[in-house]
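One record is given unchanged without comment:
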Amino acid sequence: MVGVIHKEPTHMSALKHKLIHELRELIPVTLFFFVAFQLLALTESLMLKQYGIHVTTFLAATLMAVIVAKAVALTDHFAFVNRYPEKPLIYNVAWKTVIYFTVSLFVRYLEHVIDAWRKTTTFAEANRRLFEEIVWPHFWAVQLWLLVLLLIYCAFRELVRTLGRESIVAMFFTRPSSPPSHK
C-alpha cells in the first residue's frame, strides 16, 4: 500500500493564504467606500460649482476610500466595536454607525484644518481660519450623505455577519426559486 505524503504548509503558503484572506475581506469594504466617497466628492464638487470653484477630487476620494476601508477593517477587530452581538441587529448597526460617523467627522476636520494650516503659521490660527471660512451647509450636507452611507454599510455588514457571506451572495446574485403559484 502506498502511503500518502502530507506536506506541512510552508511559511510562504501560509503568508499567501493570509494575504488572500485579507484581500477577500478588504475588497468589498474598499468597493463600498470607493463608491461612497466618489458620490460624496461629486456632491461637494456640484455644490462648489455654483461659486465658480472647480475641483477634481477623484484621486483624493479614491485614496480616502482605501484609507477608510483599511481603518474600518482594522477597527472591526476590536471587541468594543461588536458590542451587541446577542441583541437585535439594530443595536450593532446604530453603534457602529455612530463610531464610524464620529471618526469621519474627525478625519474631515483634520483634512480641512491641515489644508488651512499650510496657509497659516500656527495650528490655532489655522483652526480659527477654518471655522471662519468653512461653508457649514456644504460641510453638513456631505456629512449627512456620509451618515446615510455608513448606516447602509453597517446594516449590510451586520446582515453578512448574521446570515453569512454565502447566503447574502446567493440572495443577490442567484436566480430565486420560482414562488409557489396561488390559485
User: Anything to note?
Assistant: The longest helix spans residues 11-49. DSSP finds six helices and no strands in the chain. The chain has a mean pLDDT of 82.
